Amino acid sequence: MARVARRLIAIVAVAWSVSLVTFVVARVIPADPAQMAAGLEAGPAQVQQLRVLMGLDKPILVQYIRWLEGLLRGDLGTSLRTQRPVTRDLADALPATIELTIAAMCIALATGIPMGALAAVRRGRFADAVVRFVAMSGVAFPVFWVALIAQLVFYRVLGWLPAGSRIGQDVLAPTNITGLYILDSILTLNGGALISALHHIVLPASILAFGRWATIVRMTRVSLLEVLNEDYIRTARAKGSGQKSILFHHALRNALLPVITMVGLQVGYLLSGAVLVEWVFSWPGVGDYAVRSIVTLDFNPIVAVAMVLSLVFVVINSLVDILYGILDPRVRVQPSQ
Hints:
By secondary structure, this protein is mainly α. Helix content is 75%, strand content 0%.
């Protein structure tokens, strides 16, 4: 319980720190959101009137306190660009980001673990070299560059996959139940929407998964190589157990523990990477919403998105840390630590 309490305190501290830093940075940059909201043709009097209405004429400390008071009431302010409450905008955008993140994580796990195992089993051989080269590429190449190249190849040249959006323009979106198009299509038995949603999510989810796939491959390979050198594996070999039996019944099951606990951390990185991927693929999620808000100097959404993504990352990190201690008692932290 003490460990959970410390994590909750850390979450609150991080949330406050992120809100303070983001709010201050958003207010001190050399730009005038009142001028942006009023338009380039607006006169000084109109801009000043709007600045007063937005509360920008107050000291920054007063602005922050007022913003915190609204936050405690569940009010994140109003977006100047959409003229809607930021909470409503986030509620509409978040399901798209969640769906993209889940799809990317499924792709990364379904391909990363087998490839990492293959590289470990074929250590020092051609397959190992190829897998490690591709994994290094996934870490080295910027996600937006890979996204643009993928669009050029799979949409422009080959014509296999669409360049963006969540569903085809000629297909009606499924009835909104969860906000996740694929799940809603299944729940409402809408085959056309399901096929279109799957077709549209393949490319952005694969690009988003690429960098995380590389991390999972490397972690699986390293972890499996360590397990394969354990004494009980050598004992199993001495008893005549086959390679497949050793791999699937002994080594892989134990090697996956650090990989599984790492998955939660990867979700946080996927959310941050989704900002660029959503922008490139016109995916109407939180990332796309954040970029459009930054371009228009819409400060309330900028601060809100930064807080939401930071909180998700910290919460998942804390849950993974607690889960790791449950799955492997050897790494539990003593209360005194």
